[in-house]
Structures are given as structure tokens and as C-alpha cells.
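Our preliminary data section would be incomplete without showing what the modeling component actually yields. Below, a chain of 85 amino acids is followed by its predicted structure, encoded as C-alpha cells that our downstream tools consume directly.
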Amino acid sequence: MMSSVAEVFRGLSMGIIMTGMGADGLLGMRAILREGGLTVGQDEPSCTVYGMPRSCAEAGVLQRVVPLLKVPELILQATHYRRRA
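Predicted structure:
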């Protein structure tokens, strides 16, 4: 799915890799980074299992690493969300 997002939306895409085992998100995150999108990983202390974020961090594909509770804020910032009054 992430590879398809990267292919279609290129630099407008965003990939967020969160807690989990394995490295199955790495290829998609690489595709998003290669196309100019934003790549984000959950930090180790807030993960239950640091497998997927670790594989992306070790591969050097994460542009930002944040705690789980900061992920929504980062998404809003990246999309330039403005709350209506």
C-alpha cells in the first residue's frame, strides 16, 4: 500500500511506521522517501514491539522519530491543518 501511495502521490505522501514485529513496512517507507514524501517512525520507548520502526531507523529511511502521542500533532503540522474558529 505504501509503495502505491508513493507512486501516485509522490512528494505529497507520508508514511508512518509504528510498533510491530518484522520489517514488512521497510520497502514502502523507502518508496515514500525516494519519491520525496515524509517518513515518520514511532520512537522506541513508546513502542510495545520496536521491530518495524527499528528496521526503518537502521535502514536510514526515517526523517522524523516521535513518541506515539506526538504522531497526531505531526500529521496535522505536516498537512498544514488549521482549526476553524
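The chain has one domain: 2-78. The beta strands are 14-17, 38-42, 64-66. Preliminary results of this kind motivate Aim 1 of the renewal.
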